[in-house]
Design goal:
Number of helices: 3
Oligomer: single chain
Strand content: 35-45%
Shape: elongated
CATH architecture of the largest domain: Orthogonal Bundle
Helix content: 10-25%
Number of strands: 18
Strand order of the largest sheet: 3-2-1-4-5
Number of domains: 4
CATH class of the largest domain: Mainly Alpha
CATH topology of the largest domain: Arc Repressor Mutant, subunit A
Structural class: mainly beta
Largest sheet: 5 strands, antiparallel
Distance between the termini: 60 Å
CATH superfamily of the largest domain: Winged helix-like DNA-binding domain superfamily/Winged helix DNA-binding domain
Length: 276
């Protein structure tokens, strides 16, 4: 079954004057217009394409890579506001419509918003929504501490940054755990810090516990090599100085320095760290 709004691996069935017709194992066909047909292709070869409805509401496929897929989230720019809602650039010729009823705030031309893409059951069209909370649930989270997750920064709160976790759940990065600048729309790798009893997810941008030591040590080593073998930081440096220079907490910095020192890669002097 060809799924609109997603990538499909289909077989080349035949070549026509308007493009290639691709098909799945169930016999469903879809057009790949000439503008997206690769120079080299063979009948019966498999091809990965994105499938959606074109401006004439016809199912078509494309080799373009959209910025968002069905049931996903992305930070998209409004290119036009019309009578029915806002049209967002999602990387395809036909823009993604966010109806006024699906806007958490009235969208304006040129601004960017976090949106969710879903199939509207009434119109059977791919539709956008900035009311993202209703598409997220923490009822059935299944993570362990230090599990790696994909993050999309959603909004700033009084205690930190709310993030969308793996396109399914809500998480929070506390302000005290942030050691580098982040902003709405940033796509980051994170780590599960804690799964609370109420299923809320606390997220860290660094591995937790012993797992953080080696990546931190490696990062410090890279920084030393970039700076001619010297960093003007040491045990007495303030947390603010370390955060500004390395985007690390002082605790993480000290652990990383300890590893490099035990491995005899650095020398610690009054003026800072020297690479051996």
């Amino acid at each position: 079954m060809i799924e609109l709004g997603n990538y499909n691996t289909l077989k080349v069935l035949r070549s026509t004057s308007v493009g290639l017709f691709l098909g799945d194992e169930e016999g469903t066909e879809i057009l790949l217009p000439n503008k997206y047909v690769p120079e080299d292709f063979q009948i019966d070869q498999e091809m990965e394409v994105f499938c959606y409805l074109d401006n004439a509401e016809r199912p078509v496929s494309t080799t373009l890579k959209p910025k968002i897929i069905r049931n996903g989230f992305a930070y998209l720019e409004v290119v036009e506001v019309g009578a029915y809602g806002a049209f967002l650039d999602w990387g395809l010729e036909k823009h993604l419509l966010v109806p006024f009823r699906e806007q958490s705030e009235r969208m304006e031309d040129g601004n960017k918003y976090i949106v969710h893409c879903y199939m509207d059951e009434e119109s059977m069209r791919l539709t956008g929504s900035s009311r993202v909370d209703k598409f997220l649930s923490n009822e059935s989270v299944d993570y362990n501490q230090n599990d790696t997750v994909n993050l999309l920064v959603n909004r700033k709160t009084q205690i930190g940054w709310e993030v969308i976790v793996d396109d399914r759940h809500k998480g929070l990065i506390f302000e005290s755990d942030i050691f580098k600048p982040i902003a709405v729309g940033n796509e980051l790798k994170g780590y599960v810090k804690n799964v609370r009893d109420d299923k809320k997810l606390d997220i860290s941008l660094q591995p937790i516990g012993p797992q953080m030591l080696e990546p931190t040590a490696k990062m410090l080593l890279d920084k030393l090599e970039e700076n001619n073998g010297f960093l003007p930081l040491h045990d007495k440096s303030s947390p603010e100085e370390i955060k500004e220079a390395l985007h690390l907490s002082k605790k993480a910095f000290k652990k990383g320095v300890g590893i490099l020192y035990r491995q005899r890669k650095i020398n610690i002097q009054d003026d800072g760290i020297h690479l051996l």
